[in-house]
């Protein structure tokens, strides 16, 4: 369809005839309240008028934070406005993959924007997983704007949230089947972690050597200096100790994740 | 001042009606007034075309420029002094002084008379030059003379415009600088400065890589745990299926007792404690809920006590035994305490009490309490202690 600068037809829900996502107007993926806030915001009115995929790139590289709405008046972040713009434009897969890949290498917020778009729009669960899981290897720092203040996260944490949580950045994400379900059905392979071999080495540290290790082979090599005691493979047979370990680690992880 | 009318009204005097029998009074005053008014109107109207008619081009142009000036450089306009104002202004009288008495002077005079009136209008507006008629001969002279008053006025116009533009420029620059310096505007909520969180990468690559590894490991472990949980459940189901009914009951009993113990660990509801239940909706398991939120929702409510609440309402006088202490002393609170108090039944008292014979009979027709044939009457008016009956009563 011809590029229309003001794209009013997308916002008008009555006669929408563009591409459908999840069988509906893509703009409806955002809730009405959030949509209203975005459209009334200055950033949208000034910067997001008449953007196309290329000019949106210019805006996206200027991003400095991610987030949903903040403050008492629920102001939307520029990140959210650009995501809304992407929904309006519904660019093709190649463009999105470019944002995620090459361009994302250089500009992390662009990558996050594309990841958000992928999670929200891709209709097949497998595609979501296969597209987003490589991003779990990206460990760059990300500034997140919370409702009252700022927080520090990382790219992989944000992608993890996208895959697991149900509400991220002021949007309710479309329902995604859990990975185990897809694996059982055979639509997906079990996840290959980016750690790969290092994972095997860590498992070798596990003090409770008895019981089958479920996943990895034992290799006796030095550790990487991580603080992980005991591995996840503690079984019932190992009794209370592994449970305790896991509880301790849970607490530790909770504390550290609270900062994120 | 208009001639005072004796009638004290602005209405024009109408010609009086003919009334038969009455002598027509021809008012000299009224006639004069009416004629005067008519005359005034005409002269008032007549000069008007001479005075202004349609504004000349120059007048229009100057007006527009002045309007623009006022908008853009509002605070600076009053800078002009009176001398400046009057500098470009050339009165018709002045201009006429420059004239030499010529044959054209007659025309000029006519023009002058026009311009005098127009100049009186123009005096408040600056810079206004009354258009002056110059004959061809004079025009040639003027051209050689150099910048005339008009041109001077035009130049000053330009200067003033430039000044206004400069002021505007300065103002815009100031605003931009303020914005750059991060000053707050009315619609900008600065909850906390952005620099609070630093997102520059590669400050410490080792630490960052280590942190990432930790996160990745936790994710992997989380997945493995989930798989294990599922396995355990499946095994449990298998196990129970393979047990006999007795064994199942045994296990259930143990589980229920464990639950009871847990419940005892929680606080017990005091006498008349206020009970708040959030509702089944909020009790639903929500995997996404924050831990804090879950902790808050699953609080032990029965064990909670207000600071000010009496520890045990049973020791309070009956008047103060209210469930909601805020209602104490208020008019209109219900006296309802609890079901037990309000119940008029006897809570199982009646089981097997009555003689079977009189069961279906109405209360009024039942015999008195059996088994107390000669017993002392404990109810009613006769229940006061009475001494022994005196046998002999002769009197």
From TrEMBL, chain A:
Q: Which GO terms describe its biological process?
A: mRNA splicing, via spliceosome
For region Disordered, the annotated ranges are 184-260
Can you supply one Gene Ontology CC term for this chain's record? spliceosomal complex
Coarsely, its chief localization is nucleus
Question: In terms of domain of life, where is this protein from?
Answer: Eukaryota
Subcellular localization(s) per the UniProt record? Nucleus
Q: Does the keyword Nucleus apply?
A: yes
| Ranges of Basic and acidic residues composition bias in the record | 184-194, 210-219, 235-244
UniProt keywords (A-Z) are: mRNA processing, mRNA splicing, Nucleus, Spliceosome
Acidic residues bias locations = 195-209, 220-231, 245-260
Describe the task this protein carries out: Required for pre-mRNA splicing.
Give the record's family classification.
Answer: Belongs to the PRP38 family.
Q: What is this protein's name?
A: Pre-mRNA-splicing factor 38
UniProtKB/TrEMBL annotation, chain B:
Bias (Basic and acidic residues) occurs at 149-164, 335-371
Cleavable signal peptide: none
Q: Where is this region: Disordered?
A: 1-164, 180-204, 232-260, 332-395
Compositionally biased residues, Polar residues = 1-14
Q: Which InterPro entries match?
A: MFAP1, MFAP1_C
List residues of the Micro-fibrillar-associated protein 1 C-terminal domain: 119-344
Name one matching Pfam family. Answer: MFAP1
Under what name is this protein listed?
A: Micro-fibrillar-associated protein 1 C-terminal domain-containing protein
Organism for this UniProt entry: Extremus antarcticus
